[in-house]
Amino acid sequence: MIRAYIGLGSNLAEPRSQVERALQELAALPRCRLIGRSSLYRSAPVGHAAQPDFVNAVAALDTELDAHGLLRELQALEARHGRARSFPNAPRTLDLDLLLFGSERIADERLVVPHPRMHERAFVLEPLLEIAPQAEIPGHGSARACLGGQPGQKVERIGR
Length: 160
Hints:
The chain is an alpha+beta fold. It is 27% helix and 31% strand. It is built from 4 helices and 10 strands.
């Protein structure tokens, strides 16, 4: 089993419900076991700012799938939620990012792990640290130190 961390985000079609449903669906993925989930957080959009705020969370999974197999499952779950990839940083019903896959570093045409911008995003780091206070991001150090480098990003805990 490998411990993987998944970032969840939504800002369309009842975002809180989208994230809660996705957390339940992550628990049902084949050869995976949901072992932890963060509270829900609200954050301002990054990049394309003319859109609603996001609801974010992080889930911890133990999985027997390889990283690409897990990515396929995550993308299928996004598709079931009506995810459309119209342009970078567009509003979305559900975004699932494979943040960490054990301590592995992967970089190919389909997948980059650790997620290439996670160390710069408080809306990922805060919920990650809630469920994994000692988390390390390969190539970047501790998640806690990375969060300290993001003082201007407002992230608000909005509930479990």
